[in-house]
Design brief:
The complex is a heterodimer. By secondary structure, chain A is mainly α. Chain A contains eleven helices and four strands. The longest helix of chain A has 33 residues. Chain B is of the alpha/beta class. Chain B has two domains: 202 residues, Rossmann fold (3-Layer(aba) Sandwich); 143 residues, Response regulator (Rossmann fold, 3-Layer(aba) Sandwich). The chains are: A mainly alpha, B alpha/beta.
């Protein structure tokens, strides 16, 4: 491979990685946008999603040693897998909101945020208890097809990740911009009290936001499992932290910002690893984050002035 | 009612005080020597640690079945040295465990640790207490290196003994093997950032350079990172003959499948850190196919002489043995032998006397003769090479020393 081909390959790798970060970053950003809470439990919902996926697959008779599927069987299994897993992680998000966060809604300060950290630990330890500490193999559902792209190659897995990720984001963007629910969400984000006076059921909007964000984390977790072929109770932290960084970099609260931030961090990781070495990955990512924060404290696409007082 | 509870409480306290006041020899039946076992029993390296624990437990059970050593029963005190936060061994937890051993006056010696990262943390603690540990698997040479004495054994005497050799041989001998037998001309080297991984990758790299092998690069994997495609793509672009990985299972579990996907045909080699029977289960049979690994001991598991031992281990311990289960078994025998000679010489069984006796060990064992140099390293320096074939580790041969 020539240097240019390697760089092209790293761009392809970085975009796929970035898509996964972006899906996860959307959950952070949506919840923050609505109730100004950094939801650290999101890391763990993502991690739990991979195990939900494992269970769903084994219920459909697919295990780590199964052959990869093709044709209609593959499409059917994938659709069922995504729907069920996203529904379960979405409900998990709703449960977290209902049980742990609703009663803290009007508590100022860091109590709700600390609560989400606690929830994260509960989920991590629950998975550790159920699945044990070793990495679990995730079934290799997708066939190992690859296509040449110049001197680089694109795998079917990367393509699926990218296309499905993009479709989910378009659907989300449509929901937020064009539907009544989206309007209610944006109104709640601007001013919850005023929204309530206008007859919007704020509780319902918040619950739905948690559901959507967590369902996207569930989709992200399936991409993780299918792409890397493994999962473990500890995967939420590194991936979650990068996704959180993506959300902050793009401008927390901004949906296009989260997508841009995710792709940016994905590309930084792969190109930085290529040009400098993977041991510097975190140094590079956080140096960029700090630089951006110094010059644009609200992130790349964040609102310049806070909408709330 | 309240007075009754009070009276009962006082009675209990008095009884407890009376028993606590009795010397240990009277309350316990016979005399006990406790052996501390601090092993990463959870996390990525759990399978290897489990084999090591069971090797030691089998030796203890056999010795006690024969009536113990000169009136002393052996007893294992087992602590886990892995933490959920680390997902693998944790040097800080190992240090805590060894401090607990030292606080227990019946613990006279220890078997372990499994990992060199733990070894670096606990060796100075042992030196202060003048207590010996015998490691069946940790191979980083720094810990017993006399020029690093002030760091790892400030009181001077060797306290860190090994029934395996060190990476001063394990890393270089793998380089020799890949150079001579696999015709390696260019190599890319990765480590996992742990004390063991960095050390063995350094020693491999040094020897490969001396042999005239071109080192295309060196990088470090974060064991908690999921994505190694970036670095593997970079390595593929350099088109090396071989990839060498210095490190343990947490990173290896992900390196194998992604390496298989990105560059299936490159020669891939690791160390004893990837001699782990659960690897195909963690990464997939086809992903580990062809990987070379090593042991800092002679091949024992398939040796004819050990057939009876292996059969007994499988039956008693309900799992397959590893070579390091055998070096761990022997570590207990070394301690038992030291107790035997200490009592035989009419000396008190103390940590310090046991350390002196272990230093003077000359024991014939199922792995061959065991004797230590002044730093605690075993005098036999065999390194064995293995290859993963169809989901099983196959013995290839003894690694060339030059």
């Amino acid at each position: 491979m020539s240097t240019l081909d390697v760089l092209l390959q790293q761009v392809v790798n970085g975009l796929a990685l970035g898509m996964m970060y972006a899906l996860l970053a959307l959950g952070f950003t949506m919840v923050y946008g609505i109730i100004e809470l950094i939801n650290f439990a999101h890391f763990s919902v993502f991690m739990t999603g991979t195990f939900v996926g494992l269970v769903v697959l084994s219920l459909m008779g697919v295990t780590a040693t199964s052959q990869s599927l093709t044709g209609l069987a593959l499409v059917g299994v994938l659709i069922a897998l995504f729907l069920v897993t996203m529904a379960v992680t979405g409900l998990l998000g709703v449960l977290i909101e209902r049980v742990c966060l609703r009663s803290l809604r009007n508590v100022s300060g860091t109590a709700p945020m600390i609560t989400t950290i606690g929830v994260a630990f509960i989920l991590i330890n629950a998975m550790l208890l159920i699945w044990g500490p070793q990495a679990q193999r995730f079934p290799q559902l997708l066939p190992n097809w690859r296509w040449a792209l110049g001197g680089a190659e694109v795998t079917f897995k990367q393509l699926v990740l990218f296309v499905v990720g993009l479709l989910l984001m378009i659907a989300l963007s449509h929901l937020v911009r064009r539907t009544t629910l989206g309007k209610a969400m944006r109104a709640t984000a601007q001013d919850a009290d005023a929204a309530r006076m206008m007859g919007i059921d704020v509780d319902r909007v918040i619950v739905l936001t948690f559901f959507l964000g967590s369902a996207l984390a569930g989709a992200g977790s399936l991409f993780f499992g299918l792409y890397y072929g493994f999962t473990g109770y500890y995967i939420g932290y590194t991936t979650g932290l990068r996704a959180f960084t993506s959300a902050v970099l793009g401008g927390i609260g901004s949906i296009p910002g989260a997508v841009l931030g995710g792709l940016f961090i994905g590309l930084t990781q792969s190109l930085g690893g290529q040009l400098l070495g993977v041991k510097w990955t975190d140094v590079i990512i956080f140096s960029i984050l700090i630089t951006v924060m110094v010059f644009r404290p609200s992130g790349l696409l964040g609102a310049r002035t806070p909408q709330k007082t | 009612m309240n007075r009754r509870i009070l009276v009962a409480g006082i009675v209990l306290l008095v009884v407890a005080a009376v028993f606590a006041g009795l010397p240990g020899g009277l309350t316990a039946q016979g005399k006990v020597v406790k052996i501390g076992l601090s092993l990463p029993l959870t996390g990525a390296d759990a399978d290897g640690a489990d084999a090591i624990m069971k090797g030691a437990q089998m030796a203890i059970a056999e010795i006690n079945a024969k009536g113990g050593v000169k009136g002393y029963k052996l007893e294992a005190l087992v602590y886990d040295s892995a933490t959920p936060a680390a997902g693998q061994y944790d040097p800080a937890q190992a240090a805590t465990n060894y401090k607990k051993f030292i606080a227990d006056s019946l613990v006279m010696a220890a078997v372990g640790p499994v990992m060199s990262g733990e070894g670096k943390a606990i060796s100075p603690i042992l030196s202060e207490a003048d207590m010996a540990t015998i490691t069946p698997s940790s191979t980083n040479p720094d810990i017993t290196n006399p020029t690093m004495q002030t760091q790892y054994r400030p009181k001077g005497k060797a306290v860190y003994f090994r029934t395996v050799t060190t990476d001063a041989y394990q890393g270089p001998n793998m380089a020799n093997y890949l150079f001579h037998a696999q015709k390696m001309k260019t190599v890319y080297i990765l480590d996992d950032g742990g004390a063991f991984g960095v050390g063995i990758a350094d020693s491999f790299q040094k020897r490969a350079g001396e042999l005239g092998v071109k080192i295309l690069g060196r990088d470090r994997l974060d064991p908690k990172e999921a994505d190694y495609k970036t670095i593997l793509t970079k390595i593929k672009g350099l088109n090396p003959d071989a990839l060498y990985y210095g490190g343990v299972m947490q990173a290896a579990a992900k390196l194998a499948p992604q390496g298989y996907e990105v560059m299936p045909r490159v020669i891939k080699a690791g160390s004893d850190g990837v001699y782990d029977l659960s690897w195909p289960k963690q990464s997939g049979k086809e992903a580990v196919e062809g990987w070379f690994c090593s042991q800092a001991s002679p091949e024992l598991v398939t040796s004819q002489k050990l057939e009876a031992w292996v059969t007994k281990f499988k039956k008693d311990m309900k799992r397959d043995p590893t070579n390091y289960a055998i070096t761990s078994y022997n570590a207990v025998l070394v301690i038992a032998d030291a107790v035997d000679r200490t009592v035989g010489a009419n000396k008190a069984v103390t940590r310090s006397n046991l350390r002196d006796a272990i230093q003077a060990t000359k024991l014939g064992s199922i792995q061959g003769p065991i004797a230590f140099d002044a730093n605690g390293d075993i005098l036999t320096r065999t390194v064995s090479i293995y290859q993963w074939r169809e989901g099983e580790i196959k013995y290839v041969g003894v690694a060339p020393e030059k």
